Automatic annotation (TrEMBL):
<dbReference type="GO" id="GO:0016853">
    <property type="term" value="F:isomerase activity"/>
</dbReference>
<protein>
    <submittedName>
        <fullName>Sugar phosphate isomerase/epimerase</fullName>
    </submittedName>
</protein>
<dbReference type="InterPro" id="IPR036237">
    <property type="entry name" value="Xyl_isomerase-like_sf"/>
</dbReference>
<keyword id="KW-0413">Isomerase</keyword>
Amino acid sequence: MNRQVMVVTAAYGRDKVAELGGQRALLPVIAQSGADGVEIRRELFTASELQQLTELASAINSHNLVAFYSVPEGLFDSQGQINANLTQRFSEAEQLNARLIKFSLGHYQPGSDLSALRIFLSSQQVQLVVENDQTADCGILPPMAAFFRDVTAQQLPIKMTFDMANWHWVNQSPQQAIEQLAHYVGYIHVKAATYTNNSWQAVALDQSDGSWSGLMQQLPANAPRGIEFPLEGDDLLAVTRHYVDIVRKD
């Protein structure tokens, strides 16, 4: 199987992205690494870059890359209402020619009527995915499982981005999460983490205990895989290519 591998620009770190002049500067590296696409992060844009999304889309296309778009916002606000920026964020995704737009869950209230969201999504071309984040009240298993049960029952075309390591930050078991959520997964954030200095930290796969590989085998084989662990070193192309190869084959 020729698995689709995406590189998340945030993997290079906010400082490196800024040093290079923005996410667009990483496109040659990502393309030459053999990756299939790039996950563009909204939080890494400057105000002026947000006004140049169509130009970025053209650059992504010129490198023969697929675009995914990550929004650092919950799908539901603190009152349990649909994110007021939803229409604007989908417009940004369309300008990027993104195939997928990613939100975290936010403060979803289990059992909510999702008909308004279903109607909105019926007119959209971009796939909506919801990720487990590192927030102790929203990124844990019970609300995530409740949301996807409701999504299924109410027949919404929403899939899950399964971040393999974020569960550690909220004291949850990745294995238990897989057992309950794997069949909803449409995108995988490949990430390893280690507990040092009283906190969890993302680490490169070669520096981990290897448990990420076993988790990967239990997730849908046809789901795109996004590299979100740190990509660091003097030769970013070599580092990126190394991990693209690992993530694609594992």
